[in-house]
Each structure stands twice: as structure tokens, then as C-alpha cells.
Amino acid sequence: MPSSAVPIPRQGDDPLQPVAISAVGLRKSFGDKTVLDGIDLRVPAGSVFALLGPNGSGKTTTVNILSTLISADGGKAQVGGHDIAADAHAVRAAIGVTGQFSAVDGLITGEENMLLMADLHHLSKSEGRQVTAELLERFDLTEAAQKPASTYSGGMKRRLDIAMTLVGSPRIIFLDEPTTGLDPRSRHTMWQIIRELVSGGTSVFLTTQYLEEADQLADRIAVLHDGKIAAEGTAGELKRLVPGGHVRLRFTDPVAYRNAVSALKEASHDDESLTLQIPSGGSQRELRAILDWLDVSAVVADELTVHTPDLDDVFFALTGGTSMLSQPKENTR
């Protein structure tokens, strides 16, 4: 399905809610390649906003523009209430950025990395040591603080990376694919850290290739495709864009299966697997109606499962099947 065939959900944000990041018509090209083709963004303060897209879709370019690392070719944006072009210094003072690749210096200890960051933020020695100690404890790195960062695991380096980002107490944090390459335990630890940051009032702009990550963390999600925002909304709103939800009935008795096929003529069926599929949006009302229908039809299946579209289905529908990394689903919510 081409992305143009999928409607974009309406914004559900409260217009009176403070905005951490806003952008209108952002454009960026590298040579003859258009990476961003006039995108609009609005990130409410104290929320997690996830930008999804495959490699090369422009996620990192978006982060680099909003964090003033590179300039846009067109459009306007404000971060923390400051114009990214006219007041770049104020933007930098309000944000923290954790890139795809760790900024940790492996030749020095975790504590020394933190103190170096404190110096860059012009903290006094006493302030720097206090902030360093507090953040190392918060990120469970106190025991490893005196060890060279090169000896840290991937998850520990990522935690140190974010701890360094927080030295300046930023109100807005850009996390560019923060869990890429991490094992499931480290990924879940990072998710918990992000939730704690937001609960403390921090706004998080997250880019990720992991659909489950966006589903777990984000208040709103945007899908970037061909330089444009293909769709944006809550995870639930995006999932409702895609048809294909159904209730699946599985039988072990061929006779019961044939009776069900005869009784439920509107359901699609698979004779090889002895299964029927009844279209359903997954709501409680629809499920109750299907169960009533089964009772009236005297159909008793060996197994009943409800299938609803997930973000994988949304992504493939919006991008026409463009490949994207997607980790296995983890039922952690």
C-alpha cells in the first residue's frame, strides 16, 4: 500500500499544553538527495515523542537540525521556546543529546568522563563532583566508576552516555537510537531510565528502528518516509489506520470445522490448518458480538485468538513494504 493512500490522523494535543519542540516545513538536502521534504512536528512538554523510520530516512538529520548541529535548508523550528537559527546558543543550553554512537571516552574512567562533562558545563569542582556522584548512583554505575570505560558492557556505556547528557540538567533530551545493539535486559533498563526522566518532567525526542520500543515508550509516534511524515499519532491511533484485525478460530475435529464453515459463511477459512478468520477491530463490543454469534451457531472451537494490527503492520502499510529492523515482541506493558 503506498504511503499516500494512508490518511494522517488528526493531532490530539491540547493547544494550551506547553510545547517542547515545534517545527514547520523543515527541509534538508544533501546534494541532489532530498532527506527532509517539509516536515512538521509538535512535541508536548513532558512527553516522549518517537520518530520511526528505516536507515537513511532522515531521523538523525532531524535530530541534528533540531539540536543545532546542522542547519536546515528551509522551514522553522523552536526548541525549548528558542528559535534554532536565531538563538542556537539558548537551544543548546536547554537540551542534551545522546547520539547513535557513544560519546564515552574509553581511555578514562566513568567518573572521569562525568567530571569532564561537568567541566564543559562550567560547573565548579564541588558542584561537578556532587552531580557526578548523584548521577553515577542513579544509573547504578557507582561500583564501576573507577574502572576504565573501555571495560564497560554495552548497556553500561549507554547508561554512562545518558548520565553524561544529564550533567547540565537539560529540559529536553534527544535520544538517537539509544538501544541499538543492546541485549534485551539492557534495553529494558534503558526504557525504565527514559520513563523516569519523563516522570521528572523531561521531554524526550526518541528516534528508533525498534517498533516495540516506540510502542512501549512514546506518547506520540511519527513515521518518516521519503522525506515526509507519513502519519503521526498515538500508537493506538496509528494501529487503527490499518485494517486486518480478526478473531481466529482453530479446530482439531474436521467435522466440527466443516460445521463451522457452513454456519459462518462470512468468515474466511483455511482447510489445511482447520482455521476460520472473522474480521474484527478487537473492541470488547465486537468480541462480545462474535461470541454471541458463535453460541447461536453452536460453534465450539478448540482455540480462539484475537489478532489486532501492530506497529509492524502500520509501518509496512505506510512505507509500501520498506524493510525496517523490528525486534521480537515483548509483552512487558
UniProtKB/TrEMBL annotation:
E.C. number: 7.6.2.2
Membrane topology of this protein: Peripheral membrane protein
A single cellular component GO annotation: plasma membrane
Keyword set, alphabetical order: Antibiotic resistance, ATP-binding, Cell membrane, Membrane, Nucleotide-binding, Translocase, Transport
Family annotation (InterPro entries): AAA+_ATPase, ABC_transporter-like_ATP-bd, ABC_transporter-like_CS, ABC_transporter_ATP-binding, P-loop_NTPase
Single GO term (MF): ABC-type xenobiotic transporter activity
Source species, domain of life: Bacteria
Subcellular location: Cell membrane
GO biological process: response to antibiotic
Domain spans labelled ABC transporter: 21-251
Family label: Belongs to the ABC transporter superfamily. Drug exporter-1 (DrugE1) (TC 3.A.1.105) family.
PANTHER family tied to this protein: ABC TRANSPORTER ATP-BINDING PROTEIN (PTHR42711), DOXORUBICIN RESISTANCE ATP-BINDING PROTEIN DRRA (PTHR42711:SF19)
Official protein name in the record: ABC-type xenobiotic transporter
